[in-house]
Amino acid sequence: MSDAPALGTDQIARLRLATTMFFGIGGFLFAGWTVRIPAIKEQVHASAGELGLALLGISGAAVLTMMVTGRLCRRWGSRQVTIAAAALLCLAVVPPTLTRSPLALGLTLVLFGIGYGAIDVAVNSVAVDLIAVVKRPIMSGLHAANSIGSLTGAGLGAVLALWLSPLTHMLVALPLGLVATFWSAGLLMSAPLPTARQPEMSAVADNGRGRDLRFVVVIASAAALCAAYSQGALDNWVPLHIETDLDGNSAVAAAGYATVAGTLTIGRMAGVRLIERFGHSLVVVGGGVAAAVGALVMALSPVLWLVFAGLVVTGLGLSNIFPSALALAGAKGGPDGIALASTLGYAGILMAPPTIGFLADGFGLPRALTLIAATLLTAGALSFVVRHHIDGAGRADDARQDDGAGQTDDRPVAGPAVR
């Protein structure tokens, strides 16, 4: 460990603000693009199927990029990759608006997917480093910043869509994103960020400690997949469930989506203090059980107000599972752990719409939505399996002990290493 003094309060505050901003930037840009998809569809004269194939440019590129970003973070540093990915994402919002065919749209969205996938892994890796410094479970609060950024981007996009074309809209978002990126980059690089250096997952020694490390990372990543699957299913199918099964109008259906997004944000904003007071285990495991009950009420109740009550319980219970799973995967596996959890989480989001749709065709949408309760219970059970590791994921010492060697770095910073 370095002999350098620990970071000062002001330095930690700057690092935390910068990390929060990068979470928000990612959400802001992605949501701003998403609300313009209908207009882009008309612009490129795409059918629903052609649009779906074009959008694979984002999802496919994002998944492939997530798989390699852990290596990039180890080589170049998580902060540096975060900054580069955010800048790329800012630039990538414009090219899709210049296209005039589904093929061209899909090709330009590959660049967008690369930026999105890279920042997802890199900024969460930075967050794990920051948690080791502040010794507080702040991952949920950082993910709340992503939710707030998404809500801001979607809200601004909805307003700008009334007057601006997609190209003009993105030409507004581009400088806003770049200014926020460069300002946040200055804060993020203004102080060293100590961290316990984690081994590459594929290079972990084949011994008891190594097997335990891999086991915890895999279980945490599986919990992330279940949580992300549940959120993806809620986002895609709740509005349709309210309209078709409960005879709600489009405004009520939109309110259902807003309820999910809002409770997830509120739960994550409160997550830091809840976890500090009650512990990760109770908040995450108990949240999974409560969310599963809420999901069953949402899916099977014929009464609209009970459906909304179920959505509130589901959103609040679900809110801290995914951030906690990422924090644990990163604390035990470093950038590689984050990459695995992020990739599986994103895969869960992609799996949710088709699997629920397939089940809905055979059994009806209400019964199909009960699968959300099953995945939430699974997420809670997986979190219970690694509950002792979850409660220690915010402590820098645990990460060093699990690394086995307490590796050091010769740069003059506090802590064992710097990314």
From TrEMBL:
Residues 396-412 have a biased composition (Basic and acidic residues). Residues 396-419 are annotated as: Disordered. Keywords: Membrane, Transmembrane, Transmembrane helix. SUPFAM superfamilies: MFS general substrate transporter. It is a multi-pass membrane protein. It is found in: Cell membrane. Coiled coil: none annotated. Residues 12-391 form the Major facilitator superfamily (MFS) profile domain. The chain crosses the membrane at residues 21-39, 51-69, 81-98, 104-132, 144-164, 170-193, 213-231, 251-270, 282-300, 306-331, 338-356, 368-386. InterPro entries: MFS, MFS_dom, MFS_trans_sf, MFS_Transporter. This is Fucose permease. It comes from Micromonospora tulbaghiae.
